[in-house]
Amino acid sequence: MTLENVSCILNNYPDGMVTVDNMKVVKSPVPELGENDVLLKNLCCSIDPFMRGRMRENVKSYVPSFEKGKVMQVFSVTQVEKIGSAVTDINVGDKYMCFNGIEKYTVLPQQVIKGDGKQSLGSFTKIDQRNPIKDSFYLGLFGMPGMTAWAFFNKVGKPKEGETIFITAATGAVGQVVCQLAKLKGLRVVACASSPEKIGFLKQALKVDEAFSYRDFPDKKSFTEQLRKVCPNGIDIYYDNVGGYILDSALEVMNIHGRVIMCGMISQYNLKDKYQYTLRDITSRRLTLQGCLFNDFFPQCMGEFMQDMIPKLEKGQIIYKEDIYEGVEKAPEAFIGLFNSNNFGKVVIVP
Amino acid sequence: MTLENVSCILNNYPDGMVTVDNMKVVKSPVPELGENDVLLKNLCCSIDPFMRGRMRENVKSYVPSFEKGKVMQVFSVTQVEKIGSAVTDINVGDKYMCFNGIEKYTVLPQQVIKGDGKQSLGSFTKIDQRNPIKDSFYLGLFGMPGMTAWAFFNKVGKPKEGETIFITAATGAVGQVVCQLAKLKGLRVVACASSPEKIGFLKQALKVDEAFSYRDFPDKKSFTEQLRKVCPNGIDIYYDNVGGYILDSALEVMNIHGRVIMCGMISQYNLKDKYQYTLRDITSRRLTLQGCLFNDFFPQCMGEFMQDMIPKLEKGQIIYKEDIYEGVEKAPEAFIGLFNSNNFGKVVIVP
After folding, report:
1. Model confidence pLDDT, tens digit, residues A314-325
2. A47 and B349: CB-CB below 8 Å?
3. Start and end of every Enoyl reductase (ER) domain (chains A, B) (predicted)?
């Protein structure tokens, strides 16, 4: 008896907002098992925002583009249903976390599952079924989103008790974990989502301190006012899952030495043009943009600085150009010169 | 005989681009010395871009606003010319780095100089005259700009031999130091300034690898093309002193894990409106914007993650909301739902 497969393929690349027509569901017979093949029954497949980035043709990114006409590969949990006669070390019933197609069944050579073969995306990781974790949790709480939430929150956010964290897409795959980790750590949690139902969930189930719908504040100005109201002591950590004007608003309300965890920018993924000032690239390139002020480094670095620089000056390794103005009267001119490139070197007034 | 003083006061607050009329130079007699007073002859005063930020009325910032009608206080080197009869531990000839007015002379109570009194800005730091450093260098190479260059480059930039650094305002008070530190450290240095004269200085005196005038590339598109040409391996560190479209261009050419040292945004300081996406605030608030990708944290954090999270789940400290779709057919709908807030919780397909 031939099994029937149902698969979701990429139909074509979206131009701007993704539409239903960009994907297509097709039926096909599941191929016969070769002696080295494994028949997998996919238990669950994950749908994640970063998939949108893969629906672009020939774009260099940290994950390859989906191919037109092919099944879309996503985070999945799959279970071995049947094995070929020559398959070893893989048993019926084994479960794996993997990248696999959005489809009912998949037939793969055993090498791929064992990691001997080549697979474009992450390897198959066998699930320890003694863990008290249901299958789908390997795609969520214990999968990429949950691990993302945990790692970015702890390692990048460096949270401290009593701080205020603001979280967008707060009921999403990542956000809800962040909300809870932050509460456990003793932070004041301000969360944002889209509907009254979600707001209720955030307040009642997750016990966040403040929750509101971004739909009530549809532009930067009103959103910023709302943020100032619900974050009277400013924001110490912004866990950004949305980008766009909400990121801009949060930046306005951030405290000194605040951390913006740029986890994703879902509001931007369907734009035809890039986000105007390329903030989006900060994420994909894992850039660190750190604002700096002199006050943060001195006087504590003074000694090290002098020790390093005086010999460099004495050895002539360092020269220094100055633009010296005689007379206090020149101060305005000297100052204006900073903005029209009229000065050359360090501007100094000799009064 | 009464000494005549010449002082530069803030005449009024600029509205947009600062003009000469915003400042005014005035003459006045130097007051008689009281028994606790010190007469200072100011040897040199620094003119720095951050002064523009102080020419705003009632703005909360890391340094207070200049006061209308008052002498503008700046980084200065000053020397004791005369002391009152009751002054102790301060001698004629002593030199200090300090914040002091842009003026010929200043009379101050000895407490201010000793740090016993209150001064709104940094304290008076006595200069060790045995150092082989000329006075004005305490405002430049060994003052705020030079220390800024050194600290931000080393501590924030974390430079590595062979990397490419891009530096704007490269002949300025900060930039020229960065260019040289970077060359000494074995980086490939690409520098930007405004005139052929400065470009010549960068190439011949500072020996940078590439230098060009931003005036030849007056918009984001042409500037980005130029950057790609002179940085064929991308930019690892951008030492940003200008902001605006040049920052936007540099972001496009940054390498993964690149560091943007946001030191200043001189192109923005005279704008009436804020920089559109508030990037400017990253500097004044010393924010760290760190783009994050899952790949950077896993699998290495996997163990710690599981150890921390499994007990939390078992204790019920963590709950997790899912939005489960039955059937591959639901995949498109589920995916679209990510962008229109129709999903609630972690989206999962059960195929």
Report:
1. 888 877 778 888
2. yes
3. 18-349
